[in-house]
Specification:
alpha+beta, 5-stranded antiparallel β-sheet, two-stranded antiparallel sheet, 7 strands, 34% helix, 24% strand
């Protein structure tokens, strides 16, 4: 698998292409990841922090469960409209039972998955806004074979950090890893849920 990086810096907050070396995105103003692995980059600002506009939407579309849930939900809705209409017109209530049940199942599963995606986005955004800071290190960077887009796999970045002497871990996905095992990183974690964390700044998670 090709681990080469693009000939430009891709903003992890909004996806804008920037010249290498910029500390902030020219479009959204979001801080950019360190180019090299020897330094984690500037420290995160104290909370409350501002999150670049549009990042919540960007984050949702990188969350597989939420995105698949939205597709399931939209797929199920026509079944809930078309099948009852046909059943009323033809009097075939078995048609209604089968089609309506299928549509309800798709819509219910999709709704639950969609809600999980929204919850994930909300928790992540809140972590960026109010999370406490810890120094961490990348443990591993490996291709995630469970996700394939156009024949390519994203990289799964696993990291570790300590809160009050207790080790915690997290992971994220990126198409262009600017880190490798042993790289220092800044980690934000929720004060009451230290296992909920995010890298700051994030790694670019969408394929360009």
């Amino acid at each position: 698998m090709d681990r080469s990086q693009p000939p430009y810096s891709v903003c992890p907050w909004c996806g804008t292409r920037n010249l290498w070396g910029l500390l902030e995105c020219r479009r959204c103003g979001g801080p950019q990841p360190a180019v090299e692995t020897a330094d984690a980059g500037p420290n995160p600002p104290p909370p409350p922090r501002s999150v670049p506009p549009g990042y919540a939407r960007h984050l949702f579309f990188t969350h597989v469960i939420g995105l698949v849930g939205a597709i399931f939900f939209v797929t199920g809705l026509p079944f809930l409209v078309i099948f009852p209409a046909v059943a009323l017109a033809t009097g075939d209530w078995l048609f209604l039972a089968i089609g309506g049940s299928l549509g309800a199942l798709f819509a219910m599963i999709g709704g639950l998955m969609f809600a999980a995606g929204i919850r994930h986005v909300g928790r992540t955004i809140e972590t960026y806004r109010t999370g406490l800071t810890a120094r961490g290190a990348v443990v591993d960077v490996v291709p995630d074979r469970s996700i394939t887009v156009n024949g390519r796999n994203p990289w799964r970045v696993t990291y570790t950090y300590k809160v009050m002497g207790i080790s915690h871990g997290g992971n994220t996905h990126t198409w262009y890893p600017l880190v490798e095992a042993g790289s220092p990183v800044h980690v934000l974690y929720r004060p009451n849920e230290p296992d909920v964390s995010a890298l700051y700044p994030p790694l670019y998670a969408r394929r360009s």
